[in-house]
Specification:
Elements lengths: L1 H8 L12 H15 L8 H14 L5 H10 L1 H11 L10 H20 L4 E6 L5 H11 L3 H9 L2 E7 L2 H9 L1 E3 L8 H7 E4 L2 E4 L1 H4 L2 E5 L12 E6 L8 H14 E9 L13 E5 L2 E4 L3
Parallel strand pairs: 1-2, 1-7, 2-6, 7-8
Antiparallel strand pairs: 3-5, 4-5, 8-10, 9-10
The structure holds S-adenosylmethionine.
Function: Methylation of the membrane-bound methyl-accepting chemotaxis proteins (MCP) to form gamma-glutamyl methyl ester residues in MCP.
EC number: 2.1.1.80
Pfam families: CheR (PF01739), CheR_N (PF03705)
Amino acid sequence: MMQAVAEKFEPFPGISAQVYSRADFEAVRSIVYDVAGIVLPPGKATLVYSRLAPLVRNSGKQTFANYIDTIKADEGERRKAINALTTNHTFFYRERHHFDHLANEVRPALLAKAKAGHPVRIWSAGCSTGEELYSLALTLLGPDKGEAAPFLRGDVIILATDLADHAVAGATAAKYEMDALKDVPAELVRPWVKQVGTEAHIAPEVCGMIRVKRLNFLGPWPMQRPFDIIFCRNVMIYFDQPTKDTLVTRFIDQLIPGGHLYIGHSERVCGPKQDKMSLVGGTIYRKDEA
Ligand SMILES: C[S@@+](CC[C@H](N)C(=O)[O-])C[C@H]1O[C@@H](n2cnc3c(N)ncnc32)[C@H](O)[C@@H]1O
């Protein structure tokens, strides 16, 4: 008991406890959990320090304790702090088997829907800076511009959302280093990506079917129509079980019967409605018909 109390007040190595204490870490942890559902395990204490220290400095505060008072009171500063604490690691064609499944098993039916004038809705949920979103868009469109016309002319929307402002800005910009697309099949890059110097610019016609928005999974979801496909990959790993259960339940409610949910390789479908989903590939689930 005495040891636990002593540990609580022990400074982090190399950091003055006057500037950043264990109590400060606990306070940040609790704010991030309440706002975003993100669980910061004790091992992340120094990461929190390094991510927030520049914001503490810029705010003119001398200590984390003072800065925490600011983020409690000031929504704008709180948003900056939460942005800084998100992990946005992503890359094109991550978990390639998802895109192969989409191209071979799902795309033909979506093309038929688009041709028949029916709406097609896809959601990249937790899209980070957009690499997943454009991997999805290029796979949907396919290599043949003529064949893709029903997607481009039809009622087809790919929604991409993220909590972090810088991620939303990156996904909206739709510009990457050409190198970043090295795993995307060349026959998909050719028609839909323009090389400008060392940069890859996603073609405007592709961007025309995309809507990028800021959305916190914990808040309301204003979407009107259900989705044919939801990608939510490598996001739930940051959440605890009750948050995962709620999130998966909301995704299931948001899918059409027969719609597909793609999740990260270390994630699983959970929660009270999980029986409505059938596993049809590696971390690919299909919602049962009615
Ligand atoms: C590791 S990235 C995953 C990106 C992409 N889905 C992939 O698999 O490559 C996780 C993303 O989830 C977002 N995120 C975390 N908590 C969120 C929340 N409560 N609401 C919405 N997005 C959140 C983060 O901002 C981050 O960009």
